[in-house]
Specification:
Elements: E1 8-9, E2 17-20, E3 39-52, E4 59-71, H1 74-91, E5 93-99, E6 102-111, E7 116-120, E8 127-139
């Protein structure tokens, strides 16, 4: 999402910072000088085990991924969520990703449904929406 300019590495008040497995809170007015109310988070979620390979005994499974969008208003959140959905649906196919010294192939991210409105957060009045995926990933030799 960073390479597609849909978000930024988190630091201060950057536009649409992306967090991993958490999303920082804002105060009761929805304002915090260190947290942008418009932000994204990527979470690990429950995946899906399909079968066990009869040759080597390994499981065939996809890993669960959730993208959460928090924003000031519904229109902004829906537009950002739609842009993320379009990007992942069209561009994340056989994508190489390197983490530390390991390289992986993300064969695809399969959406498990449409954009889901989680609703307003009562304490901040910000909106939250989510996109859920199953990721087919292999580690490269």
């Amino acid at each position: 999402m960073i390479t597609a300019a849909l978000g930024t590495r988190f630091s201060g008040n950057d536009a649409w910072p992306i967090y991993y497995n958490y999303m920082p809170d804002t105060n009761s007015e929805g304002v915090d000088t260190n947290v942008n109310q418009n932000c994204l988070a990527v979470y690990d979620t429950t995946g899906q085990v399909y079968s066990r390979n009869s040759i080597d005994g390994r499981f065939n499974e996809d890993h669960g991924v959730m993208v959460k969008v928090r924003c000031k208003d519904e229109t902004t959140g829906w537009s950002k969520s739609q842009a993320i959905k379009d990007y992942i649906d069209r561009q994340v196919i056989r994508t190489q990703v390197t983490i530390s010294s390991s390289t992986y192939t993300v064969h695809c991210l399969t959406r498990t449904g449409d954009i889901m409105r989680v609703g307003p957060r009562p304490e901040t009045r910000s909106r939250e929406l989510t996109l859920n995926y199953l990721a087919t990933i292999t580690i490269n030799p």
